[in-house]
């Protein structure tokens, strides 16, 4: 810190030493908690992935199995199916959310009286607990008393569907739920980006005779492209982290139709009780998320940028 | 839109879009709240009723009268508020040092913090479980508080870092000239200016701790459950009791809804902080 060393500490340290140690004292407690609560579990996962550990048995009796868990992982169709579900889920949710969110933001970016109330309402889905989101949509999709079946029948004459009991329909249901919850995120971020654009550039393009579409595709979207990429990567990482909504709505089923990779790890660990094997899959997940996170850091580390200003 | 043309039709279209968007966002939440006030017969009739039903408090009196509700509510409040306090306190100190001091390893700490933020909760599940067994920890709430603090610290540090950067260094230098110590500068000069920063970080931290489900499900026992875990418990009871589930959901959603209506602008600024450089 910027201490001048005029206090009592001066008698023990020289002013220079004092300044050197203080920052470390400030960061140490937070670093300790993050290392113990986040970094250590990652290392622990790597360690456990070489053991065959079952729930109910002490960890020290777990048998070391070398690379067996990894060998099994790469030939396990269930793991690849769950990864494939994750990728398909990410593709549909993120592309639809991006298109919807960007379109809405472009349509509604202009400040208008009362817009802030609508913006407040639009972040509500993001604030609702994932468990509650799962419960609400499980009710709406319920085969017997769900509202969706009722209106499909009343408006389109479509008979009752067992939404969460059919592989295709259940997948559709979790995609729709995710779109409801996360489109506002893209919307909010893109609107913030659009409103931060320098007005001179937009005026210049108007004077040059660009119409609305040209302005969107040749000026606005290119200028917020780094924001769009970061939003996309953040959503992608979220897809690899997601499990609570599916846990509540379907538990991953029917079969593995809605079992995203995070939920797969959880089910393998605590349903199938294969803690060591689940850890090996967790290591695979960590690697994937690490790659995506590094991409975000390379595009723009907000701490680095601001620090260099 | 680019030529500033503001025909009444265009404005009406604008409002219509906003209205549709708001309706879609609110609809499921509306369904939950109304269903929580319906009796079982109305719900199981299967015919959606938007407004005109005879409201009942049966669902609420049932879930609150089940003995343990007070306990679960208390657990949720303790876990969320203590972990929020710890996150803000430890994260604030760390962000301050990162924003102000030059020291060896500063850049590494900043980058590592951002990377570790992305660790999926599912990855924490098995090691957390192993940790509890290994240390034979009996106070489950402390374990939850610890993990929620760890999960929230990276984002809190990141947000607070941005807020500290906005405060001019000259203010601190003036205080130092007046012989203030580092801690005095922090508490007397900076904290008052950081109110809104801490409010944003606090809302995000509290919300995540309040809403978290999967670690709570795994690490809590009969007496230490939090509200989301208790809510999920209604799913496996004999038959699905939608009225009671929705009442539980409504109660869980109250604090986040209050935050949204009283601090929407701060929440939006927190959400966009990651992608849009301020």
The coarse overall form of chain B would be globular
At the first level of CATH, the class of the largest domain in chain A is Mainly Alpha
- The CATH homologous superfamily of the largest domain in chain B is called MetI-like
Instruction: Find the CATH topology of the largest domain in chain B.
Output: MetI-like fold
Biggest sheet overview of chain B: none
What's the helix count of chain A?
Answer: 15
| Record field, number of beta strands of chain A | 2
Mean pLDDT score of chain B: 84
Estimate nothing, just give the exact number of structural domains of chain A. 2
Which stretches of chain B are low in confidence, meaning pLDDT under 50 for 5 or more residues running? none
Count the E strands of chain B: 0
Mean pLDDT over the full residue set of chain A: 84
* Major sheet strand order of chain A: 1-2
If you compute it from the alpha carbons, what radius of gyration of chain B comes out, rounded to the nearest whole angstrom? Answer: 23 Å
The name of the CATH architecture of the largest domain in chain A is Orthogonal Bundle
> What is the C-alpha radius of gyration of chain A, as a whole number of Å?
25 Å
User: Structural class, from secondary structure content of chain A?
Assistant: mainly alpha
Q: Alpha-carbon distance between the termini of chain B?
A: 26 Å
The outline of chain A comes out as globular
């Amino acid at each position: 810190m910027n201490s001048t060393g005029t206090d009592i500490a001066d008698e023990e340290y020289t002013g220079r030493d004092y300044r050197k140690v203080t920052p470390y004292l400030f960061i140490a407690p937070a670093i300790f908690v993050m290392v113990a609560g986040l970094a250590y579990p990652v290392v622990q996962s790597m360690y456990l992935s070489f053991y065959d550990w079952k729930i109910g048995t002490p960890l020290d009796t777990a048998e070391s199995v070398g690379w067996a868990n990894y060998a099994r992982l790469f030939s396990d169709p269930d793991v690849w199916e769950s990864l494939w579900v994750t990728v398909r889920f990410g593709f549909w949710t993120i592309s639809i959310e991006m298109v919807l969110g960007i379109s809405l933001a472009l349509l509604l970016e202009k400040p208008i009286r009362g817009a802030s109330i609508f913006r407040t309402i639009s972040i509500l889905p993001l604030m609702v607990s994932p468990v509650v989101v799962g419960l609400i949509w499980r009710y709406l999709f319920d085969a017997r008393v769900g509202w969706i079946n009722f209106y499909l029948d009343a408006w389109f004459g479509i008979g009752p569907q067992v939404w969460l009991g059919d592989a295709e329909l259940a997948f559709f249901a979790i995609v729709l739920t995710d779109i409801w919850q996360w489109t506002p995120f893209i919307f909010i971020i893109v609107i913030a980006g659009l409103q931060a654009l320098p007005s001179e550039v937009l005026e210049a393009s108007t004077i040059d005779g660009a119409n609305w579409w040209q302005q969107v595709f040749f000026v606005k979207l290119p200028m917020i492209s780094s924001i769009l990429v970061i939003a996309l990567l953040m959503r992608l990482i979220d897809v690899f982290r997601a499990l609570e909504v599916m846990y509540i709505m379907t538990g991953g089923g029917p079969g593995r139709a809605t079992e995203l990779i995070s939920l797969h790890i959880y089910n393998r660990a605590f349903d199938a009780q294969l803690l060591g094997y689940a850890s090996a899959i967790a290591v695979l997940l960590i690697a994937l998320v690490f790659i995506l996170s590094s991409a975000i850091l390379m595009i723009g580390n907000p701490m680095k940028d601001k620090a260099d200003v | 839109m680019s030529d500033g043309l503001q025909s009444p039709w265009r404005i009406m279209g604008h409002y219509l879009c906003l209205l549709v968007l708001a309706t879609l966002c609110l609809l499921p939440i509306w369904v939950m709240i109304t269903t929580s006030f319906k009796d079982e017969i109305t719900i199981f009739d299967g015919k959606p009723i938007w407004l005109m039903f005879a409201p009942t408090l049966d669902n609420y009196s049932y879930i609150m009268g089940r003995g343990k509700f007070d306990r679960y509510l208390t657990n949720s409040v303790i876990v969320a508020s203590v972990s929020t306090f710890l996150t803000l306190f430890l994260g604030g100190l760390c962000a301050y040092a990162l924003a102000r001091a030059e020291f060896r390893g500063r850049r590494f700490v900043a980058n590592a913090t951002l990377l570790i933020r992305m660790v999926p909760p599912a990855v924490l599940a098995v090691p957390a479980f192993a940790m509890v067994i290994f240390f034979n920890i009996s106070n489950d709430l402390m374990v939850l508080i610890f993990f929620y603090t760890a999960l929230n610290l990276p984002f809190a540090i990141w947000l607070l870092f941005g807020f500290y950067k906005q405060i001019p260094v000259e203010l601190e230098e003036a205080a130092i000239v007046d012989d203030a110590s580092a801690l005095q500068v922090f508490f007397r000069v900076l904290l008052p200016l950081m109110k809104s920063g801490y409010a944003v970080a606090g809302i995000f931290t509290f919300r995540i701790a309040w809403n978290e489900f999967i670690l709570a499900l795994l690490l809590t026992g009969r007496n230490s459950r939090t509200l989301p875990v208790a809510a999920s418990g209604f799913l496996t009871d004999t038959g699905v009791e939608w009225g009671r589930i929705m009442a539980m959901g409504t109660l869980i959603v109250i604090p986040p809804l209050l935050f949204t209506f009283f601090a929407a602008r701060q929440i939006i600024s927190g959400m966009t902080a990651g992608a849009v450089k301020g």
